[in-house]
Amino acid sequence: MHSRDSAATKQRILKHARQQFARHGFAAITVKGVADAAGVSPNLITRYFGGKDGLFLAAAQVEIPVEISFDGPRSSLGARLAASIVQRWFGSPGEDPLLVLQRASGERPEAAEALATFLDTNSLEPLHRYLRESGLDDAEARNRAAAIDAFVLGVSTRRRVLRAELGDPAELRSWLATTIQRLADGR
């Protein structure tokens, strides 16, 4: 097998693993089930990822370019963040690694720790820095960032992890934008 073929096979396995972990959490997923969905031998998953735990960790690698939302004034932060959030939630809901981590965080301590670390590094801290740089004192910036972070995680958990309907994207974006902006403004 050529390296290009193995890279494509790995990506196909990860795609199916993300879909299954995102839909069903960690416990319900088997290496054989992912292998069957990806059209490969379970041995390939063991060879590439070392088994279910390694597959989970690879499937749960998350990137959120949250700093893109910080390009602009604080007065429109809510609209920018809401647009980014809604695009992520509706864009590829069955393959979102963040959803993989959220669903598994109740079952796997390492998933909960990975999610907390990820949110601190990629959401809470950049948001805190942005708000501080927008003119707030450090404590106020930290408090507002924590409120926005908790709000978004709560909505995400309620609507994505607990499997309630996400609702209409435009209404959700508008509501998120208004609420995030109130938290950013301290109102």
Care to describe what's here?
The protein has 187 residues and is mainly alpha-helical. The chain has 2 domains: 3-59, Arc Repressor Mutant, subunit A (Orthogonal Bundle), CATH 1.10.10; 66-185, no CATH class. 72% of the residues lie in helices and 0% in strands.
- How many runs of DSSP E, i.e. beta strands? 0
Number of self-contained structural domains: 2
Helix content: over 70%
Order of helices and strands: HHHHHHHHH
- The number of helical elements comes to 9
Stretches where pLDDT falls below 50 for ≥5 residues?
A: none
Keywords: DNA-binding, Transcription, Transcription regulation
Domain HTH tetR-type: 7-67
Organism: Amycolatopsis sacchari
GO molecular function: DNA-binding transcription factor activity; transcription cis-regulatory region binding
Outline the fold blueprint:
Layout: H1 3-24, H2 31-38, H3 42-49, H4 52-59, H5 77-91, H6 97-104, H7 109-133, H8 138-161, H9 169-185
Domain HTH tetR-type: 7-67
InterPro entries: Homeodomain-like_sf, HTH-type_TetR-like_transc_reg, HTH_TetR, Tet_transcr_reg_TetR-rel_C_sf, TetR_C_16
DNA-binding region: 30-49
Provide a brief overview of the structure.
It contains 9 helices and no strands. It is mainly alpha-helical and 187 residues long.
Index terms:
2 domains; mainly alpha; Arc Repressor Mutant, subunit A; 9 helices; 187 residues
